[in-house]
Amino acid sequence: MTALPTPGPTPGPATGPATRPPRAPARLPMTPGRWLALAIGVPVALALIGWTGFSFVSALGRASFPVDTTIPLAHGRLTAHMNGGDIVLRPGHAENGQARLTGTAHYSLVRPHFAVNGGDLNFRCRIPTGDCGLDARLAIPPRTVVSLDTGGGNVDVSGLQSRLTLSSGGGDVTVSGPEGPVTVDTGGGNLTAGDLGGTLRFSTGGGDVNGSGLFTPVVTMDTGGGNVTLVFTRPPENVTVTSGGGDVNILLPRGTTEYAITSKPGGGDYSRAETVPINSAAPDKITVDSGGGNIRIATS
Could you tell me if 235 and 257 are in contact, meaning their C-beta atoms sit under 8 angstroms apart? Predict the structure, then answer.
């Protein structure tokens, strides 16, 4: 009897070489530099996200309130500190020698601090973001000594007759008419001055300076790079102009007054009209350092 063959394994489908599972990507080693980047970058990113959200909420939460108050002046002086907003100063004859403040305060989320204490006026924003400032008009007796500091708003002053000290964090300043000394410091805004007869000290972080109708004896000017134009109607005794690079133009009244002129164009051009008499020993002095801009001294 013939034995039947033992059935072998059933042939399956043809298979290729064995496929290996994909390897997991190798982890980057945490070097000290990467740890430092995480330590700095993560808090900064979170802070930026939070600040952006807070600023958005502040923009939505705007409000305002009217201001109308009298300010008793201490010994004919007024001191005002503002975080922002535009201020206009004009002469006024308030009763009992008081000043009057009218305008609108605007803010975001938190009502600003506003207080009058004697001759001191204080307007301070409580949060460093959003829209906050006081747009106002101050009517004061003409001979009031004024010290005004704004956080960046524009300042417009005319018709006063006493000492003025004005400071703006970057807004434009316009001054006309004061007979007393004037000191102006702007963080970069333009300065416009006219019909001034007292000692002038001007400083700006880069804005242009335009002075006209000046009959002041002494001018000290320092600008971070803006152009300077000074037009005199009376011969000045001492003019000192320092610019970080802007052009300087000085126009003097025609006459026989001689000037001792020192010029440092620093790379720019220097020109003096023949109608400007010069004498190195003259008591009236003009010193100009343009930092690289052009210097021109002529007669008007």
Answer: yes
Report yes or no: 64 and 105 within 8 Å, Cβ to Cβ.
yes
DSSP secondary structure string for all residues of 177-201: ---S-EEEEESS--EEEES--S-EE
Q: How many angstroms separate the CA atoms of 85 and 107, rounded?
A: 11
Q: Which of 86, 121, 142 is the last residue of a domain?
A: 142
Q: Are residues 117 and 220 in the same domain?
A: no
* Domain interval for residue 276: 152-300
Q: Write the DSSP string, 234-268.
A: S--SEEEEEESS--EEEEE-SSS--BEEEEE-TTS
User: 245: closest CA among 232, 264, 261?
Assistant: 264
pLDDT digits 0-9 by tens, 76-122:
899 999 888 999 999 986 667 789 999 999 988 788 999 988 789 99
- Same domain? For 297 and 216 the reply is yes
Q: Do 110 and 211 lie in a common domain?
A: no
- The domain total for the chain is 2
**Do 196 and 297 lie in a common domain?**
yes
Encoded tokens for 67: 């201001």
**Cα angle at 157 between 155 and 163, to 5 degrees?**
110
Q: Rounded distance, CA 153 to CA 140, Å?
A: 20
Structure tokens at 41: 């970058």
Within-domain flag for 232: yes
Over the stretch 183-210, which tens digit does the pLDDT of each residue have? Answer: 999 888 899 999 999 999 999 988 899 9
Who contacts 265 (Cβ-Cβ below 8 Å, separation ≥6)?
290, 292, 293, 294, 295
Let me know whether 162 and 277 are in one domain. yes
Of 120, 222, 226, 215, nearest in space to 177 by CA: 215
